[in-house]
Structures are given as structure tokens and as C-alpha cells.
């Protein structure tokens, strides 16, 4: 019985899809995923204002790190509990509001709820 732990298809017999994520263990830090990321890495786009000028969507955090990097400062504005009534009782989650910017006109707001 101990030998057939992988019989369900995945590691430790949990079924398919519960293994390690990511595929190959290569260096992913320098590899942009989007076309915009490749343009930034190749220095075709020289400033963040060029992205705003053409209303381009920034889908990789590494693009912001490339342009603003060390000058970014973040501040947690508020962490508030939110509750959902379920059949078994109440489920409490926490909602966080975070502001980030470089004190030079670039500002971002993040909102996320966690368990």
C-alpha cells in the first residue's frame, strides 16, 4: 500500500495537477513575458511616460522596477476585516489598501482581500 502512493497520478497520490509549479527551473528573472516587457528590456522604450502616452497596459511588475526601482516607497493605508455570512457562521477576511509611489508624480493603489 505504501508503494502505490503515486497511483492517483500526482505526487503523494493527490491526483493530477498538485505538483510543483513553474515547469523548468531556469532563470526567469531576466525573461520578459509580454511584448511590452521585451521592448523595455531592449531599451526601445526609454521612460514610463511613453507607456502612459499610448495608454499601454503594464502587466509585469518588473517593468515598473526597471524604470523606478529603488525610488519606490509603499505605505499600508488600511487593513480592515470584512465578514461574509455563511451557512456555518461568519467567514472573516482582511482587506488591505496599499499606496505606492516615487514622490515624483507616479502613484499606484493596491486593494486585495485575503483569507
UniProtKB/TrEMBL annotation:
Residues 72-115 form the S5 DRBM domain. Coiled coil: none annotated. Pfam families: Ribosomal_S5 (PF00333). InterPro entries: Ribosomal_uS5, Ribosomal_uS5_N. Keywords: Ribonucleoprotein, Ribosomal protein. Residues 7-22 have a biased composition (Gly residues). Residues 1-31 are annotated as: Disordered. One of its GO terms (cellular component) is cytosolic small ribosomal subunit. This is 40S ribosomal protein S2. It comes from Mandrillus leucophaeus. The lineage of its organism: Eukaryota, Metazoa, Chordata, Craniata, Vertebrata.
Amino acid at each position: 500500500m505504501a508503494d502505490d502512493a503515486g497511483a492517483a497520478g500526482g505526487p503523494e497520490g493527490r491526483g493530477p495537477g498538485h505538483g510543483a509549479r513553474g515547469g523548468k527551473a531556469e532563470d526567469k528573472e531576466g525573461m520578459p513575458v509580454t511584448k511590452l516587457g521585451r521592448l523595455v528590456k531592449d531599451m526601445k522604450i526609454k521612460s514610463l511616460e511613453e507607456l502612459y502616452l499610448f495608454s499601454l497596459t503594464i502587466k509585469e511588475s518588473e517593468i515598473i522596477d526597471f524604470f523606478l526601482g529603488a525610488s519606490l516607497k509603499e505605505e499600508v493605508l488600511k487593513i480592515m476585516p470584512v465578514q461574509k455570512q455563511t451557512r456555518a457562521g461568519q467567514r472573516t477576511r482582511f482587506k488591505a489598501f496599499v499606496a505606492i509611489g516615487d514622490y515624483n508624480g507616479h502613484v499606484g493603489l493596491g486593494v486585495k482581500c485575503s483569507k
